[in-house]
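We treat protein structure as text, and this decision shapes the records that our systems exchange. The tokens are whole numbers drawn from a learned vocabulary of local backbone shapes. Below, we set out a record of this kind in full and without editing:
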Amino acid sequence: MGRPKALLPFQGETFLDGLIDKLSRHCDPVIVVLGHRPEEVRGGVRSAAQFVINADYARGMLTSLQCGLRAVPPDCARVVFTLVDHPNPNAATLAAIIQAPDAPVVIPRFAGRKGHPVRLSREVAGQLLDLPPDAKPTDVLYRHLAATRFLDLDDPGVVDDIDDPQAYEELLERAGSL
């Protein structure tokens, strides 16, 4: 993208500020894992959250997930996580994910496609923490596939994945932000 995705403007705020705001209505604490250019990203965020730095971010997404999971208070029974390049889940979607009946994993879907945010039980979070850094989160998630709760929602925001300028432009057009 040429700049940190976390700081891309969207609907009057940055991707990261929007996600912090949406998640903080349901989650406490909201933990943000910073990797590449952490000072720049932290300096561009207005919202209150707990920030942790993943010095090993170049090793892959699992190290960031593990960094965030290590910061979760021990009394949290469930964890909700998302990626910053999935900036557009709606409020009803977040509520549905958080309020879904107990399951080891809760994953939203739109038109049959899996998306974010994802909710994990404390047990699954612990199994992810036990993975070596070269593993993939799916190594754990597939173990729980039979008990995973998929929520079929009318929210294309769960599958928005803003990885390039074209996807960003399309997001802005759909949201009426251009």
Summary: Strands lie at 9-10, 13-14, 31-34, 50-53, 78-81, 105-110, 113-114, 118-121, 149-152.
